[in-house]
Write a structure and sequence with these properties.
The protein is α/β, with parallel strands linked by helices. It has five helices and five strands; from the N terminus they run E-H-E-H-E-H-E-H-E-H. Bound molecules: adenosine-5'-diphosphate.
């Protein structure tokens, strides 16, 4: 039988309460969830990769079913490397849906054995976006209400 291991890929720049909620809700569906920060050596993120990794590890330090990792390259290649059968993604809006649909269908064409699974965001997190959190922090605002409680960001 197929392992119920899911990869939750993203840039998580930074990880937000929206991401946290998707992982927590998906825990009952899977035996293990690997949160995987995708990176590109030619295009660095806003927050250093090492910080993003540490912050997410802190959030799930008491959750044995969650692992945090980084990868470069195609998400499906990393799934194959890790023996993962499911890609987990969150959906907020119809534009998220269109974007995710294209990626999921292309991934499926390349690797039909990997199933993409989507969880619809809670209504209270529909507006939560890493890009806006970055902007708040960049301009010296307090973004703590959009970040998981166990996450201590300093910029
Ligand atoms: P990417 O750069 O791959 O879009 P993100 O870190 O922005 O990565 O997001 C990772 C996943 O989390 C995506 O599926 C995205 O739609 C989802 N996501 C982001 N914010 C939220 C939220 N507030 N509620 C639910 N899902 C979310």
């Amino acid at each position: 039988m197929k392992n119920k291991i899911a990869l939750f890929p993203g840039s998580f720049d930074p990880f937000t309460i929206g991401h946290e909620s998707i992982v927590m809700r998906a825990l009952s569906l899977f035996d293990k969830i690997i949160i995987a920060i995708g990176y590109n050596t030619n295009k660095t993120g806003f927050f250093p990769l090492e910080d993003r990794l540490t912050w997410i590890r802190d959030v799930f330090s008491n959750e044995k079913k969650v692992e945090v990792d980084t990868y470069e390259g195609l998400t499906v290649d990393f799934c194959v490397e890790k023996g993962v059968g499911y890609i987990l993604r969150g959906l907020r809006t119809s534009s998220d849906f269109e974007y995710e649909r294209a990626i999921a269908q292309m991934n499926r064409t390349m690797h039909p054995e990997i199933e993409s699974v989507f969880i619809l965001t809670l209504p209270e997190y529909t507006h939560v976006a890493s890009a806006i959190v970055r902007d708040i922090i960049l301009h010296g605002g307090d973004a703590s209400m959009f970040l998981p409680k166990k996450m201590k960001i300093r910029k």
